[in-house]
Design brief:
heterotrimer, A alpha+beta, B mainly alpha, C mainly alpha, A: alpha+beta, Rossmann fold, five-stranded antiparallel sheet, C: mainly alpha, MetI-like fold, two-stranded antiparallel ribbon, 2% strand
Chain lengths: 361, 272, 268
């Protein structure tokens, strides 16, 4: 079922929570809504579910305009952050609740419940006797999923479902949820603040900030083609350098930065800019200056420190007084003067004004 | 359901309960204010003059009883509440919860028997040789007996309130005092009481107003001769004199005393 | 060198004192209940027996006992019916005058009841409610509702809204959600509120005296009458019986519920 959102506005007592949201979710897709806390992702999800009324705009499930429909009638199924499993009912009754409402026969309910339990890989023995609190966190999450999926909803909504679980359990469930969703072909929206989760699970990511959509695209697009400083900064281990374009060239302090600033979409001529480069793209060398390659920018820097972080070392380098952090397996052997190499096509350039509030973080 | 329909349904659900309290308490409350000015000869301040003449001693007596009971309760509440805050004791806490669950009338009667000249307390004291049975002191029908009864019933309330107030004081302050060598009494009076001042003030007002308005215990215990508390005077005015004007006026004086206490006390605390 | 009293002696004295303070006054009730002959200046009754128990249990006190229980049950049921929906709305929705409403219920416990109930009595007289069971039920409700409302609001607030939203999400109507999800989870709290209301009604004195007497005699009034009439044994037995439900409630609450509920109880 394709989901369309058009010009959605939502206010909480004069404070705008969602501003002009436009989004199309293709049928069967898995969309992650990502963003810092307060960005509006949960608000958007609750509008989709029908728990919040919108001020203006439309929401369509397929051809049907559901904007004014109460939550009971929308046909969405939600998986809550705290699972919201009813503690006074058995696991079986939890899953069967929605089916009972839809007046399925006892036989049908039993078939469906056991079928979905199999799909979420939950042991079906004793589900008619045991209560949710007797299961582990990971298992409870599966029960919550089963309860949602057994209804074959038009839209599956997941509100940070894995944030209460251990890292290892989370890793495993991510894959399982994704496979389950693909297998059943249900359109899914997944709210999270964890970028690893969004990047690894989603077909498309919607990055939000302050109630607005910053960028929509595939994970690769958002990561490699950020359209704003915020996006480039939010994803990955990003380093920000303050640079200035004057006399036709880009300067970091006194050093020239040999990248074609004019080629960037964000270029506005002379002025202050922010150069963003990810930690995994930085490399460092010592000794006499190597010949500059056409695809690499080389800067003179000072190697400061290496910290052991388990999977390798985190290195701290300074160029013209500004800091860069990057990661590699080897420990830095020398300290002091070094050459810093940045691949041109992995550098992002954005104007500095307009990005002030992000710099302050 | 439309917004309007749900609003009406909501109001219909809320209204009956509020109406009961409104019509059977709030409205009569205002009636008592109004009727306090009603005299045999129409409207006027007659009833208040009567109170001044007949009952001003009793008003002061009631306040004195309430203050004395409050004092007993504060001392008890602060000391015991303080000790329990520093050192949990389930048995003691449970014991002192008991008065809360004993009905007022039962307390009144029990105290009457316990403190009577021929009562159990005197019996025990004479067994210990502390008093002679020929001329036993009578606590039951005196102010002392009343204060004891009122304090006993309110023990739990006072203890719970003080403990609540002291629980609001963070452990780190207590530990800091222990660290520099303060004993338990010092901690109670130098740390707990000052830091819980506001809560103690509110609790005091609650206890005080509750005692001023209490009827069942004074009427059970009574004072054979001499002053009575206001509520008893009120009752006698209704039952024996059939004078609702004066009765209501006494009520109004009681409200004023309660409110006055509240205002005075809270001002004193919030000033700092 | 300081001589300190051994710790255990202090403790023993403390406990003894506490026990005396609490149980001393109550002990007289027990003694009087079983005393058949007790003449001054003897310290303790000469004869013990169950004579007065038989007298009491065969007499009009039983009528009052049953009446008090009946009224208690009616008051409890009515209180629940009136306040469960109200408390749910107050807990879940932003009702404009929420704080004022909560305070209104508190008023009968915050102000002296005697002066106000006097006027209530005059009011009820006009509607022929004085001296009737409905009249007594009403006057009990006035003071009891606060225990129900304040407790239930807290209970409903403690049920996570996500549990209700999950059911709505599944397609359940609000009414269905209330009965299948909310109420079962609120059951222990509702039980607590019921006990508080029942006990309040059982022990209520001022209103019952004004409204009920002399036609509707509840246990507390019966006890008061017999005490004023110097029927020591009868009044003590009545007092003992009156005490029991309260103590039972204390045990139940100690076992199952938090002591916050206790702080709201206990006004005369």
């Amino acid at each position: 079922m394709e989901i369309t959102i058009e010009h959605l506005y939502k206010k909480y007592k004069d404070k705008p929570a969602l501003t002009d949201i436009n989004l199309t979710l293709p049928a069967g897709s898995f969309t992650a809504i990502l963003g810092p806390s307060g960005c509006g992702k949960t608000t958007l999800m609750r509008c989709l579910a029908g728990f919040l009324e919108v001020n203006s705009g439309t929401i369509r499930f397929g051809d049907q305009d559901v904007t004014r429909l109460p939550p009971q009638k929308r046909g969405t199924a939600m998986v809550f952050q705290n699972y919201a499993l009813w503690p006074h009912m058995t696991v079986y009754d939890n899953i069967a609740y929605g089916l009972k409402l839809r007046k399925f026969s006892k036989q049908q309910i039993e078939e469906k419940v056991y079928a979905i339990l199999k799909k979420v890989e939950l042991d079906p023995s004793d589900v008619r006797k045991r209560r949710p609190t007797e299961y582990s966190g990971g298992q409870q999450q599966r029960i919550a999923l089963a309860r949602a999926l057994v209804l074959e909803p038009k839209l599956l909504l997941m509100d940070e479902p894995l944030s209460n679980l251990d890292a290892k359990v989370r890793q495993r469930l991510r894959v399982e949820i994704r496979n389950l969703q693909k297998d059943l072909g249900i359109t899914a929206v997944y709210v999270t603040h964890d970028q690893d989760e969004a990047l690894s699970m989603a077909d498309r990511i919607v990055l939000m900030r302050n109630g607005k959509i910053e960028q929509v695209g595939t994970p690769e697009q958002l990561y490699n083609e950020p359209q704003s400083y915020f996006v480039s900064h939010f994803l990955g281990n990003s380093n920000t350098l303050e640079v200035t374009h004057r006399n036709g060239k880009l300067y970091l302090g006194e050093q020239e930065v040999a990248i074609p600033a004019e080629a960037y979409r964000e270029w506005r001529g002379e002025g202050d800019y922010l150069l963003v480069v990810r930690g995994e793209d930085i490399s460092v060398s010592f000794g006499s200056e190597p010949p500059p390659g056409p695809n690499t920018v080389t800067l003179k820097g000072i190697f400061r420190e290496s910290l052991f972080v388990g999977s390798g070392y985190r290195h701290w380098v300074q160029v013209e007084g500004q800091s860069l952090f990057f990661h590699s397996e080897e420990k830095g052997v020398e300290k002091g003067n070094c050459h810093v190499h940045l691949p041109v096509r992995k550098c992002f350039l954005f104007p500095r004004d307009g990005a002030q509030e992000d710099l302050a973080r | 359901m439309t917004n309007l329909a749900s609003r009406i349904a909501g109001t219909a659900l809320v209204l009956p309960a509020i109406l009961i309290v409104g019509m059977l308490f709030v409205y009569p409350f205002f009636l008592s204010l109004i009727n306090s000015f009603k005299t045999k000869d129409g409207w006027g301040l007659q009833n208040y003059y009567t109170i001044w003449e007949l009952y001003r001693g009793d008003v002061l007596y009631t306040i004195w009883i309430a203050v004395a009971s409050l004092a007993v309760l504060l001392v008890f509440g602060i000391l015991l509440g303080g000790f329990l805050r520093l050192h949990f004791n389930g048995v003691i806490e449970f014991l002192f919860k008991i008065p809360l669950f004993i009905p007022f009338v039962v307390v009144g009667h029990a105290m009457r028997v316990f403190l009577a000249p021929n009562g159990t307390l005197n019996a025990l004291l004479s067994m210990a040789g502390l008093i002679s049975l020929d001329n036993p002191p009578s606590l039951a029908y005196t102010s002392a007996g009343l204060i004891i009864a009122l304090a006993w019933k309110n023990l739990s309330m006072a203890l719970l309130l003080m403990m609540g107030a002291f629980r609001g004081v963070d452990n780190s302050y207590i530990e800091a005092a222990k660290n520099v060598g303060a004993g338990r009494l010092r901690i109670i009076f130098n740390v707990l009481v000052p830091m819980a001042k506001g809560a103690i003030a509110v609790s005091s007002v609650l206890i005080f107003t509750s005692i001023i308005g209490n009827f069942s215990i004074p009427v059970m215990m009574g004072n054979t001769s001499g002053p009575q508390v206001m509520m008893v005077d009120l009752y006698y005015q209704i039952v024996y004199q059939n004078n609702y004007g004066v009765a209501n006026a006494i009520g109004v004086v009681a409200y004023l005393v309660s409110m006055g206490a509240a205002i005075y006390y809270l001002r004193m605390v919030t000033k700092k | 060198m300081r001589t300190t009293v051994p710790r255990f002696v202090l403790k023993a004295v403390g406990y003894a004192l506490a026990l005396f303070v609490i149980f001393g006054p109550l002990s007289s009730l027990v003694i009087w209940s079983f005393a058949e002959k007790w003449y001054w200046p003897h310290l303790f009754p000469q004869e013990y027996g169950l004579f007065y128990w038989k007298k009491v249990l065969g007499g009009s006190m039983i009528r009052s006992l049953i009446l008090s229980f009946e009224i208690g049950v009616i008051v409890t049921i009515l209180a629940l019916v009136l306040t469960v929906p109200l408390s749910y709305l107050l807990a879940r929705y932003n009702i404009p005058a929420k704080a004022i409403i909560l305070v209104v219920f508190l008023l009968p416990q915050a102000f002296p009841q005697l002066p106000v109930f006097t006027n209530t009595m005059v009011l009820m007289y006009k509607y022929d409610l004085v001296g009737t069971v409905p009249g007594v039920v009403l006057i009990h409700l006035v003071g009891a509702l606060v225990f129900s409302v304040w407790t239930l609001v807290s209970v409903f607030r403690s049920i996570p809204q996500s549990l209700e939203e999950a059911a709505i999400n599944m397609g359940a109507s609000r009414v269905r959600v209330f009965f299948t999800i909310t109420l079962p989870l609120a059951a222990p709290g509702i039980a607590a509120a019921s006990l508080l209301v029942f006990l309040y009604s059982l022990d209520e004195f001022t209103g019952s005296l004004l409204i009920g007497a002399p036609f509707v005699i509840t246990m507390p009034i019966y006890m008061y009458n017999s005490a004023m009439g110097y029927e020591m044994q009868v009044s003590s037995i009545t007092a003992l019986l009156l005490m029991l439900p309260g103590l039972l409630l204390l045990f139940l609450l100690e076992k199952y519920l938090k002591s916050e509920y206790l702080a709201s109880f206990g006004r005369g």
